[in-house]
């Protein structure tokens, strides 16, 4: 299955990337990156370094947005769950190549245009790159099979504001453009990604699986797991979106009409999920994840890490 990945690499973005690289059914055509969990230059470095670690320097990486469609990203001011370098402060060799000499949206357009099959886009950052692409290249929408998005919080509280999840809250206008594009959407929001956690024993199995990718994943998550002390495990937000691409049955979902709130005084960036369109009478534009087969997911993730160098 041809896949494009949009990231702001980040610990769980890096694990989503490893998942796709270790999944023989996914053909990762290219990666686009934007500012997010860490500044754009660090996102670029992290993404290229993870590809180098896995011997996949053939996969093009292009850089996109440094700010949301409107305004600027506000500095978080808190100790980041991703660590100072975005990879849990784990050091891996620097990349030996630079990002592609084109913008993220140009790379997306070229790869989608050239692909003989329709392409699945997995976006696990704010949706600025994706929204910009849809505005610039509307004729290419029909070549997109589906959008699998990590973002939103329908019934649980937010992690960016009391009600907004980070990938939507950081650029709600972009999210709304994506939600209304008319392309089939699968939304892996906090409601289901918090249920897709990895226990300490499962992370130790990554370490012991015999690959440097597995050991790197375990090491990164030492920093991340510290933020989940007292919980049964740490949430694998972005990897769940990657996994859902290949295995529909991993996630139980509900069809819904989905909107990003743009104007609420306290609710800007919240995702309004109307199951079945029952309350608004609007058509369903997304499948919203509600439950995950956590054990099957853990098993597939470990298998993917085992296949890598
Ligand atoms: C999202 O925010 C980022 O920190 C994670 O990488 C994930 O994409 C979860 O809200």
UniProtKB/TrEMBL annotation:
GO terms for cellular component: cytosol. InterPro entries: Inosine/uridine_hydrolase_dom, IUNH, Ribo_hydro-like. GO terms for molecular function: purine nucleosidase activity. The keyword Transmembrane helix does not apply. This is Purine nucleosidase/pyrimidine-specific ribonucleoside hydrolase. It comes from the Bacteria. One of its GO terms (biological process) is purine nucleoside catabolic process. Transmembrane segments: none annotated. The keyword Flavoprotein does not apply. Residues 3-298 form the Inosine/uridine-preferring nucleoside hydrolase domain. It comes from Bittarella massiliensis (ex Durand et al. 2017). Keywords: Glycosidase, Hydrolase.
